[in-house]
Design brief:
By secondary structure, the protein is mostly helical. The chain is about 70% helix and about 0% strand. The chain has helices spanning about 1-20, 25-35, 45-55, 60-65, 85-95. The radius of gyration is 18 Å and the shape is globular.
């Protein structure tokens, strides 16, 4: 029984480690995106400005954020961000505009 308990604890620990690694869209936004999107279009939460972008779909929004678009440089100028970080930030911004 003691071995089984250790196995359960290990599985739980591994699960929590995996959760900690998951990108936090709000944290990424606050650190890397908010400087612009709190002050320039499309502003966070501006449903009118975000509506046509949301219609294009999250995949296109994520690709645009990764590659850059208009005045926004690739990855919003935060080159160290992973694609998963960008995706999480985009999903966070979209959720605030719905």
């Amino acid at each position: 029984m003691k071995f089984a308990t250790i196995g359960i604890v290990t599985a739980a620990a591994l699960f929590s480690i995996g959760q900690a690694v998951a990108a936090d869209g709000k944290a990424v936004y606050d650190k890397s995106c908010g400087g612009c999107h709190n002050n320039m279009a499309p502003k966070l939460g501006d449903k009118e400005k975000w509506a046509p972008l949301i219609k294009e779909g999250n995949d296109k929004l994520v690709a645009s954020a990764i590659k850059g678009k208009g005045g926004m440089p690739p990855k919003g100028g935060a080159a160290a961000l992973s694609n998963d970080d960008i995706k999480a930030a985009v999903e966070y911004m979209v959720s605030k505009a719905k």
